[in-house]
Structure formats: structure tokens, C-alpha cells
């Protein structure tokens, strides 16, 4: 089903509509995409003390993420090894142990089975508790962001993020204080396939001036100029798009990190105060990225907007529905008033009832459920914007597209999605490491452009 160009055609830059609808595709995704990728679980700031825990999901699997006494983090499947009941029903808290509701089996903070009611009298000393701990998943952390993975053969989190770390460090480390997430997350149900928001956040700069035309006009600030996609906009000077080895990518709008913050204190002042330090640490290109607005997705299902500072996880609920979890992303060392201002603006724009969130939600639902029709579903979708106007760049890692309004990172996301569906294991993915970007055929785009400018 997936070994040809049917689901994703990297040459024609098109995808089958089945990718948003088909149950077999979805089941394969659960196994080969979600089962083998590093998935966002939480941020250290959400569970700062030993004993703190949060419950979350890895795709449809319920997971407990628990802060250990030694400061590390462990994650295990939130399902009792006795008769399968969910172990913990709280969203978060601090617990010495987790006790199953059904028959009272007790799991430690590390997921080990530590106590069983009537163990001696009714199991007659035959129960091997050491073999009946909750099932663990791998946990690794990058700059405070905690990820889990269900595949023992997957590369480390650092390798998985790969060259995308060059970009992430700019903001996840920034001037030195790093970021934190404000929780608990807002949660909502959206009737769409999980890839629709992921592809939107990874690189759909095209929809901003159209879908959000009304809201941008209301909000004001620099982004209001994008409303309506006026033909006189300097599209090639507005920013770039990036895609990297494992499908992570983003689009950046230059000088727009504080654009939706109409007041110029708080977040805008924080950026102005810290940008020089970022430039000293990371160089001029990343200083420019630091003050740009990013729409970003980390493959497969975690997205954020830097500038607007909303942080999303798209938990799939079957092929046609997702649970959206929305956090606010703030600089760890900002003062309380600035954090509160950022949270207010993020909620106003991309909270569950946010103005821009509402604009997007309707399209995401429509783009999924229109495929209910058999004739419709037989067709394809196009993502060819900017083909050939992209390539390797002397400074920026990955493949760089010429404008933030393009589909370079879109194509990069689906290129890797198909690679994961086709690959029998991570060894097959790694074997393609030196050749992954060959689908971006204009190798000289940036060299020619830079030479022409000199
Ligand atoms: S199902 Fe959990 S104790 Fe029986
Ligand atoms: Fe949008």
C-alpha cells in the first residue's frame, strides 16, 4: 500500500486524500510513526519536584510521566498489569505511589509493582512482582523538554532532533534562561486528522493572510499587513522556510516575534533586552531568527508558535479526530508580569476559544471530513508551492525555502512521514541519512542567489 508514490508523491509534490481518512493508514501510523518517533511528554517546569507527575498520551497510549527522587524522569504506560485498568486518573499531582482503583495493586513512582493486596494469602507466594511493573517507555530530555519513545532501536532524542537543534537552541536556550511551559494545558476536541494541524504549523505561511485576514486586522501590529495577501507584499523578504532530516521544520516571519503584542513592554522588551546576547552566542543569522515569528512542528505531532508563544500537542483519536493540548511557552527568567502578559496574548489568539484558533479549526475539520465522499477521496492534494526555489544553504542546516510563504517544510514533513511508513525499522531510515534531501533537486538555488547578490 505504501511502497509506491500513491500516498505521497515526492516528485509531483502531491498526496493521496486517503492520508486524512483511511483507517489502515492510521493503524500503520500508530505502529510506524507514533510507535517509533520521539513524542513530546511534558516540560520539566510542569513537574518540578520529585514525586510530581503528569498523565498524558503517546498517540492513543495513556502514559504517566513521573519525576524520580534522583531528579530523573520516567514514563510508563498508564494501565495496570493485573486486569488492564487505568492506573492513574488524575491530570497531575505529587504522589508517593499509584494505586489501581480496581483491586488495589500499588505502583511506585518509578512504575515498579510494589504492593499487591492479599498477596501472601491468595497468590500463595507465586506472584513475581518484579515481572509485573508498568510497561516503561524511553524518556530523554532536551533543554527542559521531555520526550518519550516506544522503540528501543530509535536514535537518541538528540539525534532524532538532529540538525533541527541548531534552530531550536536559538529559542529553547536563547540568551541563557531557556523556556518553560505554563500549564495545565487547555484541552479541546477537534474533528480533524492529526496531520492537518501539523502540516499547517510546519509551514503553511500561505493561509495566514487569507484565513486570518479578519483576525489580523482586529489584532493590529506588524502582522496586520499580511491580511488579504496584497500583491505588493515583499514575499521573498518576509522570511524563510526550513525542513530537516526527520521532518521537523518551520517558517519564520522576520522581525515579527512580538507582532501580536500590541503593547511594547513585556515580551517585546524582553526580546530587545536579550537579542544581543543571543547574537553573541549564536551569531547574526540566529539573532535574526530569535526576533522572528516561527510556525513550527516537531515531527510528528507537536507544534508551537514562537512569538505568539502557544505550544500544542495534537493527540490523535482515530483518523478523524484529535485532542488538542495547548500550553503557553514563556522565557523562564522573565518577570511574572511579562509571563502573565504573554499567556494572555497566547490565549487570546491560540487558546481553545482564541480568535486565530477558531479560524484554523473550521478549515482543519473541513479538510478532513470532506474526504468522507468516495469520489472526493479518490483525488489528490497539491503542495508544490516553491518547488525549485529551495535547496541547501551555506549557513542554515537542512533545506531552505525562499520565502515563508511556500511549501518547502510541508514537503519535508510528508517526505519523512512516507519514509517512516515505508521503512521496516530505524536501520532502514538511518541507511538513507546521506541521501534524504535528494528530493529537493535544485542543489544550487542558494549558491546562485547569493552569487547574484554579490
Ligand atoms: S486491574 Fe488493577 S488491580 Fe486489578
Ligand atoms: Fe492559522
From TrEMBL:
Keyword terms: 2Fe-2S, Aromatic hydrocarbons catabolism, Dioxygenase, Iron, Iron-sulfur, Metal-binding, NAD, Oxidoreductase
Domain of life according to the entry: Bacteria
Biased composition (Polar residues): 363-374
Pfam families (UniProt xref): Rieske, Ring_hydroxyl_A
Domain Rieske: 38-148
GO molecular function terms attached to this record: 2 iron, 2 sulfur cluster binding; dioxygenase activity; iron ion binding
Disordered: annotated span: 352-377
PANTHER family linked: 3-PHENYLPROPIONATE_CINNAMIC ACID DIOXYGENASE SUBUNIT ALPHA, CHOLINE MONOOXYGENASE, CHLOROPLASTIC
Family per record: Belongs to the bacterial ring-hydroxylating dioxygenase alpha subunit family.
This protein's name: Ring hydroxylating dioxygenase subunit alpha
Natural source organism: Hyphomonas oceanitis SCH89
Amino acid at each position: 500500500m505504501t511502497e509506491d508514490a500513491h500516498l505521497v508523491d515526492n516528485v509531483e509534490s502531491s498526496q493521496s486524500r486517503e492520508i486524512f481518512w483511511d483507517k489502515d493508514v492510521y493503524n500503520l501510523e500508530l505502529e510506524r510513526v507514533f510507535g517509533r518517533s520521539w513524542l513530546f511528554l511534558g516540560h520539566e517546569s510542569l513537574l518540578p519536584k520529585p514525586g510530581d507527575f503528569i498523565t498524558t498520551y503517546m498517540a492513543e497510549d495513556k502514559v504517566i510521566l513521573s519525576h524520580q527522587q534522583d531528579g530523573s524522569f520516567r514514563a510508563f504506560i498508564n494501565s495496570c498489569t493485573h486486569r488492564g485498568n487505568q492506573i492513574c486518573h488524575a491530570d497531575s499531582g505529587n504522589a508517593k505511589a499509584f494505586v489501581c482503583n480496581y483491586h488495589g495493586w500499588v505502583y511506585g513512582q518509578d512504575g515498579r509493582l510494589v504492593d499487591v493486596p492479599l498477596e501472601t494469602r491468595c497468590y500463595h507466594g507465586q506472584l513475581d512482582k518484579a515481572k509485573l511493573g508498568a510497561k516503561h517507555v524511553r524518556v530523554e530530555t532536551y533543554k527542559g523538554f521531555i520526550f518519550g519513545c516506544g522503540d528501543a532501536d530509535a536514535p537518541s532524542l538528540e539525534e532524532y532532533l538532529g540538525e533541527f537543534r541548531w534552530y531550536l537552541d536559538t529559542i529553547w536556550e536563547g540568551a541563557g534562561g531557556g523556556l518553560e511551559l505554563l500549564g495545565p494545558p487547555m484541552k479541546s476536541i477537534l474533528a480533524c486528522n492529526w496531520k492537518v494541524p501539523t502540516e499547517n504549523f510546519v509551514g503553511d505561511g500561505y493561509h495566514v493572510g487569507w484565513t486570518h485576514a479578519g483576525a489580523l486586522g482586529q489584532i493590529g501590529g506588524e502582522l496586520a499587513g499580511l491580511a488579504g495577501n496584497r500583491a505588493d507584499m515583499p514575499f521573498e523578504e518576509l522570511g524563510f522556510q526550513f525542513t530537516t532530516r526527520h521532518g521537523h521544520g518551520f517558517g519564520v516571519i522576520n522581525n515579527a516575534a512580538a507582532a501580536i503584542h500590541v503593547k511594547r513592554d513585556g515580551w517585546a522588551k524582553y526580546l530587545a533586552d536579550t537579542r544581543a546576547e543571543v547574537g553573541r552566542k549564536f551569531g547574526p543569522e540566529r539573532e535574526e531568527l530569535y526576533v522572528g515569528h516561527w510556525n513550527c512542528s516537531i515531527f510528528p505531532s507537536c507544534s508551537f508558535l514562537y512569538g505568539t508563544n502557544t505550544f500544542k500537542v495534537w493527540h490523535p483519536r482515530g483518523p478523524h479526530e484529535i485532542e488538542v493540548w495547548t500550553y503557553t511557552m514563556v522565557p523562564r527568567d522573565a518577570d511574572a508580569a511579562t509571563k502573565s502578559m504573554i499567556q494572555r496574548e497566547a490565549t487570546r489568539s491560540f487558546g481553545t476559544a482564541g480568535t486565530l484558533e477558531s479560524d484554523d479549526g473550521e478549515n482543519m475539520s473541513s479538510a478532513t471530513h470532506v474526504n468522507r465522499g468516495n469520489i472526493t477521496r479518490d483525488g489528490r492534494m497539491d503542495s508544490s508551492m516553491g518547488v525549485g526555489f529551495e535547496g541547501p544553504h551555506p549557513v542554515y542546516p537542512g533545506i531552505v525555502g525562499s520565502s515563508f510563504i511556500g511549501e518547502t517544510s510541508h514537503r519535508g514533513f510528508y517526505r519523512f512521514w512516507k519514509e517512516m511508513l515505508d521503512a521496516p525499522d530505524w536501520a532502514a531510515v538511518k541507511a538513507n541519512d546521506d541521501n534524504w534531501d535528494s528530493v529537493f533537486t535544485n542543489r544550487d538555488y542558494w549558491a546562485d542567489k547569493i552569487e547574484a547578490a554579490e
